[in-house]
Design goal:
Shape: rod-shaped
Radius of gyration: 47 Å
Largest sheet: 37 strands, mixed
Helix content: 10-25%
Number of helices: 12
Structural class: alpha+beta
Strand content: over 45%
Length: 702
């Protein structure tokens, strides 16, 4: 018996010493693991261990490095173990941490760290994410409440709090993420007085590298993704399927993002594929060139009013397809919108179809691409080349030819929204428009230019005006300050206002400053009229309140063509006239005072009176003398005094001097005829029949 006691006593003593040595063994195992992680001078308090449990009332650790400082504080840590496994392999079964505070202070911001990373090449296959399950300090790590604070120079602080459960095969975590945008520039590092509401991140990652995450805020899902990470090959790949709810997501991120941002309504279904080399190149530019990826999205986007010109509202953009592809450090994007609806000052515009492509070399600050807009009523397609650089949008655009008649319904609908009107009497009958221009949206405002070319145009104004063969070249400009300018050339082969006109190409220039009065300048104009010409001098006036005093010159006007307008049977003649007409314009009121026309050389006038007139002359000696004188009047001098009132009343006083070789031995004749007509009505009817007779009768019977 005593012999058995001497055998058991050393064994019991060894077990007792082993039990008493458990804290030291556990401390050695934990301290060795902490040293491997780079923690220095750990402060660890141990309580007396149980057979399979060790309690650590307090743990303070600091890791100092050239890139960051990590401080860890934990209390009431429980370490569970199997004694045999602890002694044999140094394995801990479970590590429970009710509360852990982790603060990371980066020495440099992200841009500086990327510059330093460019000096070394990183082999990702040496440290794949699945290695996390092999390097864990225990077979299970459970953190009841993790408080994480991350700070870096010139970056907003990020706080996260939640729980972490890491087993041998799976990582699960739920963290509350809180942003502190106000503290981004604080010098003392103190948190701001108020924080944004947190968002909760649920993360699951397993040893097979399957990944799922969900971001929620106020019981609303902001983002949800699931997929897998493939490693261990020359190129790593990440494939994710999920959805975003951008409106609440951007609302949460708004303090960190430049505004305004587009309001993206509804859920956005996304598919993401990304590939990159396991041997990361030392320079970020080389890494970008090695990246490949593709993102597809279906959803709707609402542009903020700040992005649009005043008065323009665009309905939510319902994208059939939004695809992003990354390859060779370049992002290619394609957007398709089958129906783009918009309103201008409340007026609905015709629906449009949009196809746009963009390219963004990640090594540059500029994004450029092409866009194509198809429209109906009128049928036209607008193509554009665009570029976004330094918060400035530049666009060069061009349109397919537009038929002028097809544009009229759109103008009647659109112009009232701009406080303009297209007169009901105006009809666009024929013509082809070619449009192109440029646009630049910058912080100072909109800088735009449009070039308009009209060919073979024809229009009508009720039944009082018709024009054909119209050609125009026009350049419209809007400056960032709000000023508007227009310059160009206008001409027409034929204008019919009751008498035929031809308008040669005339240059004009219009200016409308942001403040002040507008100005319209017209170069000298020479119109072909009645076999001669009418010359207008250069004009400058304010179209909004026109006021003008000028003189119109006439030369070579053929009396034969004037008489042809009268359509008076038996009245013929021919002589050339020249002279001047003083014009005065006040608003819409036009008047002529003291205009005079003279004959340019000799001419003749013959009037073969109708039988009714001759019968009247039989009992009227004065009328009989006048008809005899006009039967073959050889004109030596002709003077016409012209007055035109604002109401449209035209007064002509015509004095004929000459002789009739067939009447009273060529006796000298001096005859004055006064004509009074309403010119607008005269031009409308072009019927002067009987008015010469009435004028002669009135003159000779006074």
């Amino acid at each position: 018996m005593r012999k058995l006691l001497w055998i058991l006593l050393p064994l019991l003593l060894a077990l007792l010493l082993g039990y008493l040595a458990l804290p030291y063994v556990a401390a050695r195992v934990l301290g060795q693991w902490l040293a491997e992680q780079g923690f220095s001078e750990p402060e660890i308090e141990f309580s007396h261990p149980g057979w399979n449990r060790l309690d650590i009332p307090r743990l303070n650790l600091v890791q100092q490095g050239s890139e960051r400082r990590i401080a860890l504080q934990a209390q009431q840590i429980s370490v569970f173990f199997d004694p045999l496994e602890l002694y044999a392999g140094g394995r801990i079964s479970e590590l429970r941490i009710p509360r852990l505070q982790l603060q990371i202070d980066a020495r440099e911001n992200l841009e500086q760290r990327l510059d330093e990373a460019a000096q070394t090449r990183l082999d990702l296959n040496a440290t794949p994410p699945s290695l996390l399950f092999d390097l864990a300090p225990s077979e299970r790590l459970a953190i009841g409440q993790l408080q994480l604070t991350y700070r870096a120079p010139q970056q907003p602080p990020l706080q996260a709090s939640g729980n972490v459960d890491l087993s041998a095969d799976q990582l699960q975590s739920r963290l509350a993420l809180t942003l502190h945008p106000e503290a981004a520039s604080a010098s003392d590092g103190a948190p701001p007085a108020t924080d944004t509401l947190p968002a909760y991140l649920d993360l699951t990652f397993n040893r097979a590298q399957a990944l799922s995450l969900q971001l929620t805020r106020e019981a609303q899902t902001l983002a949800q993704f699931s997929g897998a990470l493939q490693t261990g090959t020359e190129r790593w790949q990440l494939a994710l399927d999920g959805k975003l709810t951008p409106t609440p997501l951007l609302a949460w991120l708004a303090p960190l993002l430049p505004g305004p941002l587009p309001a993206i309504a509804g859920e956005q279904a996304l598919t993401l594929q990304l590939a990159w080399p396991a041997q990361l190149p030392p320079q970020p530019a080389l890494l970008l060139q090695a990246l490949e990826g593709q993102l597809e999205n279906r959803g709707s986007i609402t542009l903020p009013p700040e992005w649009l010109p005043a008065g323009l509202q665009i309905e939510p953009l319902k994208a059939t397809t939004l695809a992003l592809q990354l390859q060779g450090a370049t992002v290619d994007a394609a957007l398709t919108l089958p129906a783009l609806s918009a309103r201008l000052n409340g007026t609905a515009l015709p629906p449009l179809a949009l196809n746009a492509q963009g390219r963004w070399p990640l090594s540059q600050t500029a994004i450029e691409g092409q866009a194509r807009i198809a429209m109906r009523a009128p049928d036209a397609t607008i193509s554009a080349d665009w570029q976004w650089r330094d918060e400035r949008l530049q666009l060069q655009w061009r349109s397919t030819p537009i038929a002028l008649p097809g544009l009229q319904p759109l103008l009647r609908k659109l112009l009232p929204a701009l406080d303009l009107t297209l007169p009901k009497a105006l009809t666009l009958k024929r013509g082809q428009l070619n449009l192109n221009g440029r646009l630049e949206q910058q912080s100072a405002g909109l800088d735009a230019q449009t070039r308009v070319t009209l060919s073979n145009g024809a229009l009508g104004w009720a039944d009082t005006l018709a024009a054909a063969g119209i050609s125009a070249q026009l350049t419209l400009q809007q400056r960032p300050g709000g000023s508007i300018a227009a310059a160009g050339r206008l001409g027409a082969e034929q204008i019919d206002v009751g008498l035929p006109l031809a308008l040669p190409a005339v240059d004009f220039n219009f200016r409308q400053p942001a403040r002040g009065r507008s100005s319209l300048s017209v170069a000298p104009v020479r119109l072909e009229l009645l076999g001669g010409a009418v010359s207008f001098p250069a004009l400058t006036l304010d179209p909004a309140a026109p006021r003008l005093d000028s003189t119109v010159r006439l030369e070579g006007i053929a009396l034969s063509q004037i008489l042809a307008l009268y359509q008076q049977p038996g009245l013929t003649g021919d002589i050339r006239l020249r002279g001047s007409l003083p014009l005065r314009l006040e608003g819409s009121a036009l008047s002529i005072r003291g205009g005079q026309l003279y004959n340019d050389g000799g001419g003749w006038l013959r009037y073969a009176a109708a039988p009714a007139v001759q019968q009247s002359a039989a009992g009227n000696p004065g009328l009989q003398l006048a008809l005899g004188a006009l039967s073959n009047l050889q004109i030596e001098r002709l003077q016409v005094d012209v007055d035109y009132a604002e109401q449209g009343d035209l007064e002509l006083s015509c004095r004929f001097q000459g002789h009739n070789p067939d009447w009273q031995q060529g006796r000298a004749i001096d005859l004055t005829l006064n004509l009074e007509e309403n010119l607008p009505m005269l031009l409308k009817s072009l019927q002067f029949a009987g008015q010469i007779d009435d004028s002669v009768n009135r003159r000779l019977t006074r």
